[in-house]
Design brief:
- The structure is a homodimer of 325-residue chains.
- The first copy, chain A, has 325 residues and is mostly helical.
- In chain A, 75% of the residues lie in helices and 1% in strands.
- A two-stranded antiparallel ribbon of chain A has the order 1-2.
- In chain A, strand 1 and strand 2 form a beta hairpin.
């Protein structure tokens, strides 16, 4: 690693302790009865991509106030709360190789811990006394929930295409990564076109991130460490499955549709379909769909000042593109 | 009814259609997949006490902008979202004599509809571009969740007393009624001491409201229309039960504690304990506890201008005190 370069990985490593401390402080502000759950889901690790985007966005625009760490905990809290409620919705027993929070602490405390993290995210951004930052967070929460609700409405159905899928992931994942970047840019007090460029960068990166995530759902479990084909089991019609279904004849498609609607694929069927998706390169084709959004994200970067932080954001693009788990 | 008087009941009737319209407009802003659930819980009726408090508070301080109706939908959305999540937490099959939302629409859509209403409440107050109003809503959400989490932490235990109970209901119910009044006062641009007086009025009224609610839990089901003794079944140690347990000997208390912790009272036992609570006047004694807070609420009113709206707020006190269902 060259000394003068600011690399994404180095930044991840360097900033992790300070981001962790900011998250610990946030956990300390949660109501006592849900604090342990907050710590369980918020301090467990993870890529910390959202806090890092907030930090880098602000610094790119010349702001490096110490309060930035407090700010960057905000999108991570919303992210953690949404995973927590997601796991309740999906009845998921595990998350990142650990027992899920609601399985460990019970449904009721877990649901409330999620509500508390959302409320705390609100309170924490309010501290900055900036209407535009508050609006950014409220909008992101609303769009994220709307995306999740959209996903549930589509579940089990094969009748939607790529366009509606993109619309859904824009809400579910795009808006919060957008907010992560936008919060940093707004806090830096940058002019509107720079704030827009960073917001759009975050939005497109977020969409691409989710598309790649959905490609990875059919990757080899021995590489990802996650069970393969969860989306197939849960009736989530993602691009790899759209490709797969596109290759079926009418009769096969009807049989597939029935099992998809009822979530009744056997483990053998899931494994067989995942193998076909990999063999036929449908996961690679899905990554190509992500490429289109990553190119748009790159275009946004061209509008920003040439700084070491801009290079870090440029590295986010292959990081998302080539992620193997 | 005298013509020159502004009575609470007349106001309820007069304002109901406009409050309803504001709530309908809010429902229209929810994500499409959860809109039906939002309508189900938000447009079903109810006392509309929170919106009315916002309206009356603003008018009392000389503000009657048409936007007030939009504002007064905010606390009602938070209230409805918290009932929705509550019913999921309590596995309640019914609410106000109807099938509960999660029973009708499913757990996942209902949970997300609650999240969406909270996010929308945030967005809707942000529209007013007033940092103090945004802070008021964030604080209220946080304190409400904290109160709910506190309640769950206390569940099944007999080891806390009146003081901790009051602390819990202050969060669970007090802060949102406080916010309902405070939002109106802030929007009116009133000076700080008037905003404080109205906020405190709302807080004390809210605490009293919950205490009376907990007394009503042991009232005759034929009067309230709700099943009697729910708190006993759910292990919620409220003032009527504190009085009841205070009258037991050590052996009886241990036996009660065991069933209370495990929620294993038979229907006959619940009916018998409720009858004793009524016979011995423990529900009346509980209303006396509420009286202390209602007196404090009344003291706050003395600091406010003498207007017809102040008289309406004065009527809220016996309304809370004498409620029979």
């Amino acid at each position: 690693m060259r000394e003068q370069d600011l690399s994404l990985n180095r930044l991840f490593e360097e900033e992790r302790p300070r981001i962790q401390r900011a998250l610990e402080e946030a956990v300390g502000l949660l109501p006592a009865p849900v604090r342990e759950i907050g710590a369980y889901v918020l301090l467990a690790g993870g890529k910390r991509l959202r806090p890092l985007m907030t930090l880098v966005s602000a610094r790119l625009l010349g702001c490096n106030a110490p309060d930035l760490y407090r700010l960057c905990a905000v999108p991570e809290m919303i992210h953690a709360a949404s995973l927590l409620h997601d796991d309740i919705l999906d009845e998921a027993d595990t998350r990142r190789g650990r027992v899920s929070a609601h399985t460990r602490f019970g449904l009721r405390p877990a649901l409330l811990a999620g509500d508390a993290m959302l409320a705390l995210a609100d309170c924490e951004v309010t501290v900055f006394e900036r209407a535009d930052m508050v609006e950014c967070v409220s909008d992101a929460m609303m769009r994220t929930v709307a995306g999740e609700a959209h996903e549930i409405a589509l579940q089990g159905s094969l009748s939607h295409g790529e366009e509606e899928y993109i619309d859904m992931v824009t809400g579910k994942t795009g808006w919060l990564l957008r907010a992560s970047c936008r919060l940093g840019a707004l806090y830096a007090g940058a002019e509107a076109r720079l704030v827009s460029a960073l917001s759009d960068f975050g939005l497109y990166a977020g969409i691409a991130f989710q598309i790649v995530d959905d490609a990875l759902d059919f990757a080899d479990a021995s590489v990802t460490g996650k069970p393969c084909g969860g989306d197939l089991r849960e009736g989530k019609f993602t691009p790899p499955l759209m490709h797969y279904v596109g290759g079926l004849n009418e009769r096969e498609r009807a049989a597939f549709g029935e099992k998809f609607a009822t979530g009744s694929f056997s483990e053998e069927e899931v494994a067989r379909i995942a193998a076909i998706i990999r063999e036929r390169g449908y996961d690679r084709a899905t990554r190509s769909l992500a490429d289109g959004y990553l190119r748009r994200a790159e275009t946004c970067l061209a509008m920003l000042p040439e700084t070491p932080e801009r290079n870090v954001l440029r590295e986010v693009i292959p990081f998302i593109r080539n992620r193997e788990k």
